[in-house]
Amino acid sequence: MFFIGVSGYISFFLLAAKDGLRLSKFIKPLTKLDLVVLDELGFIPFSKEGGQVLFQLCSDLNERVSISITTNLRFADWNGIFGDEIMTTSLLDRLTSKGHILEFVGESYRFRQRMQLEEQAASEQAR
What we know:
- Helix content is 56%, strand content 13%.
- It is α/β, with parallel strands linked by helices.
- The protein is elongated and about 65 Å long.
């Protein structure tokens, strides 16, 4: 398994490309894994080149490795991240053709835990 934040992945590969390294050199070892987790898609914006790098990764791993992407964005908002409607549609087509979509609706568990901590602290101060 390989777990990385999307913005970190894109930054790493864009820097590597500037140094003349080929993306395929880094993707090949990932094709031997069972799962690649790309965390927090859309939290930090990236350039069109960054979108192309992410598209290339997902295309190369498609049907070879399980890919998990976490995001708070609806699919309709992905075009704003990638900046290219055709590329976004193609990526979503690849990811969803044989994939499972898990949508969690409701309050964040982190937010709920924080609120509980604040309530506990307030009740302790009131004593």
